[in-house]
Amino acid sequence: MNIIDRARAGWAAFRGKSAEQMTMDQLVSFLGIHSNGGPAMSEATYFACQKVLSEAVGKLPLKIQQYRDGQGIRVAREHRYYRTLNERPNRYMTASVFWSTMELCRNHYGNAYAWIDDDGKNPPQLWPMDPRQVRVYYDNALLLKDQPDLYYQYSTPAGVIVLGSEEVLHFKSHNTLDGLVGVSVREQLASTIQGGIKAQKMLNRMTDSGMTAKAVLQYTGSLNDDSVKKLKEQVEAYMKGDINEKDSKNVVPIPVGFSLTPLNLKLADSQFLELRQFNALQIASAFGVKPYQVGDYTKSSYASAEAQQLSFLVDTLLYNVKQYEEEVGYKLLTDSEEAAGYHAKFNTGVLLRADQKTQIDTLSTAVSNFLLTPNEAREKLDLPAKEGGDRLLGNGASIPVEFTGVQYLKQANQAQQAPPAAPDPEKEREEEKAWLKETLRELLAERSLA
To answer: Phi, psi (5° rounding) for residue 313?
Structure first.
């Protein structure tokens, strides 16, 4: 049954509530009364954080692997979900676009959903679901099944779909109050993000006014409302530069008896830039994004940037990808496949690619220490395999760890176990004769000298 048929056959118990909710959402959207107070994506730092996180996940290849006892890990290219996860989740989206979309929704809305379209016959597909049209229910009253379970109510133009927990991939943000539904950073930092939006709007207004602040127009006498409005519009037009006459491009003409007193507002005096920078750092910190990734290089260097990239992977991204791996492995792999060692794994090594010299030195060290075969090292450099390159090579002086220090123990045992040598009479007589001859020579030498 496809998604349209399922929508038409949705449970009637949810139709009234869904229609009411959709109507309210449309009304709120039409009136512009959003709970977050405005379009958060227009805030530069918030947008940069979303871009960094979504593209980071989109860069990572997600593969199905198998662990085999005594044989290590291999890539399970024959698995039916391999191409779905690594190449094409559905017919309209590449893997990079799909996982970037999941990460963007997870951070922006607090939850990301994907419908698992698998009938067991055709290649499986994963379809993103609009988080704004998904409601999560926990059936603890056993209305739908004999066992309590989570259900996802998805409102579509064709109707309402109710999906079970095994039919939806659900990725949550790290902020969650009940463990079932995530809370977005946008909702947690609504006031901070809105502060950045208002600061940008103020700069836009100052730009529109020719970077001039408000001014006081003083005049003697009385003018009716229409005359005051017309005079104000003319002065504003001159101040903003809208009237670019040859003789009055940078001059504001004032009638006799009138005076214009500007109310100077200096951004430096109000520490506007410092406050904006602090606000940006707060938003980046909430996402776990490093300052240099949002354009703050005040305390960054080339050496520290490399360390910050590793810190970003370990401190921020590793939690996210681990959640993806756990959800995908639980929902898409069977119990028998899990028992056989199959699992989903992101290749995070693509984020830590070194320069060519460092990469070659690292691979050479791994080959000389029996960690990689030459062909495995050549594969990492996208080079073809060579004959005889599938054997482990290394230093001939290397020994197994269990034999470390055996040579010293052997010498000590030989010294302790060697029996004392038996006395040799013939050898003792020869030594005595040699001693007597030497003694006689010394005596004769002393007499000759005397």
So the answer is: -65, -45
Q: Angle between the 95-109 and 44-59 helix axes, to the nearest 10 degrees?
A: 140
What pLDDT, in 10s, does the model give residues 293-339? 877 767 666 556 667 778 888 888 899 999 999 999 999 999 999 99
For residue 114, which amino acid is it? A
Question: Please, are residues 24 and 132 in contact by the beta-carbon 8 Å criterion?
Answer: no
For the chain, how many residues are written? Answer: 450
Task: Give the helix ranges, DSSP H, for 300-423.
Answer: 302-312, 318-332, 335-339, 356-368, 374-380, 406-417
Mean pLDDT confidence for 436-447 = 73
pLDDT tens for 88-139 read 999 999 999 999 999 999 999 999 999 999 988 889 999 999 999 999 988 7
Tokens 């860069």 correspond to 59
110 neighbors 173 (Cβ within 8 angstroms): yes
Alpha-carbon gap, residue 326 to 314, rounded angstroms: 17
Compute CA 231 distance to the chain's CA centroid, rounded to the nearest angstrom.
56
- Residue 185 and residue 35 in contact, taking contact as beta carbons nearer than 8 Å: no
Q: What is the number of other CB atoms lying within 10 angstroms of the CB of residue 224?
A: 8
pLDDT in tens, 370-396: 788 888 888 877 788 888 888 887 776
On whether the CB atoms of residues 113 and 73 are closer than 8 A, the answer is no
Q: Among 171, 97, 188, which Cα is nearest to 134's?
A: 171
C-alpha 112/C-alpha 170 separation (Å) is: 6
Whole-angstrom distance, CA of residue 212 vs CA of residue 425: 120
CA-closest candidate to residue 236, choices 218, 204, 260 = 260
Angstrom CA distances, 18 to 75, 113, 115, stand at 43, 18, 19
* Strand ordering across the sheet containing 159-164: 134-138, 150-156, 159-164
Bridge partners for 271 per DSSP: none
| 38 Ramachandran zone, left/alpha/beta (phi>0; psi -120 to 50) | left
CA distance 332 to 346: 15
Sketch the domain layout of the chain as residue ranges. Answer: 3-188, 354-423
- How far apart are alpha carbons 179 and 246 in whole angstroms? 67
